[in-house]
Amino acid sequence: MKLSELELLYLRRLLVERLESLDRGLQKNLRIFGDSDDIVLKQRKIGNLEAETAVLTALKEKVNLEIGFCSLTAT
Asked: Out of 7, 30, 40, 57, which could bridge 34 as a Cys pair, Cβ 3.0 to 4.6 Å?
């Protein structure tokens, strides 16, 4: 499936908004659960957010590369 440059820009905007939301949630959970001795709770509350952030950041980088490729082929 090939996306247009406009669709890729919209996808990037959605990714950035979700990453900002995850960052806020991560900061909140670090304040609340960061000093907890419960490893399972920390993994559930903090680890999942970190994993999702890493995946979405990698996806955003791929979208940025695809947008750059579209810009190069458009000229």
From this structure: 30
Task: Identify the burial level of 34 via C-beta atoms within 10 angstroms of its C-beta, where 0-12 means exposed, 13-18 middle and 19 or more buried.
Answer: exposed
What is the Cα–Cα distance from 24 to 74, expressed in whole angstroms?
37
Dig out the tokens for 23 from the structure: 């960052």
Six-digit token pair at 29?
Answer: 């959970």
**Is residue 6 within 8 Å of 70, Cβ to Cβ?**
no
- pTM score: 0.83
DSSP notation for the chain? ----HHHHHHHHHHHHHHHHHHHHHHHHHHHHHTT-S-HHHHIIIIIHHHHHHHHHHHHHHHHHHHHHHHHHHH-
Confidence of residue 54 (pLDDT cuts 50, 70, 90): very high
